[in-house]
Write a structure and sequence with these properties.
11 strands, four-stranded antiparallel β-sheet, hydrolase, alpha+beta, 198 residues
Length: 198
Amino acid sequence: MIMERRALVRPLDVREQAEQRTVVGYAAVFGNPADIGGQFREIIAPGAFRETIGGDVRALIDHDSGRVIGRTTAGTLRLVEDDLGLAVEIDLPETQDGRDLATLIARGDISGMSFGFIVTRQQWDETGDMPVRTIQSVDLREVSAVAFPAYDGTSIALRALESARREKRQHNFRAAANRVLARKVSIDLRARRLVSKA
């Protein structure tokens, strides 16, 4: 299984309440086709995060595991799947990273979020002019506030497309082999019946 990352440019907000700064935004939205390197389109289906948001997920800055700013098991990161997508709330720590991030978001220097995930269920449609991958379920590993909200996991995502095509070829090969075997068995049974009648 391959870890992939996707990013989204949507407004982030820093809310201050009783000396607590909280970042609020969306790490993903449902139903918006995204172009992945000109090779295929990708759509995140509603429900893709339902099974994973109760796990141990971390909030990072720029996907850097050395810059943790929240964690679901600590209660400093809250994730909710709503009608729009994956809503994120991060209670910023009173650290240099926390203070810097609040300032950078307020100034508009950091304007996007991203998420790191492993696909656990997907569907491919290659009937159109460009393949479409619908992500139905993920194992969410992290969400990040990012300076460059772009689809930076493109080469990994392209490997996912090739893997799906390889699985389809193997499935088709196995199905064809099973049809050949079933036909041989059928012919063998008919031959045995003829021999037993003689």
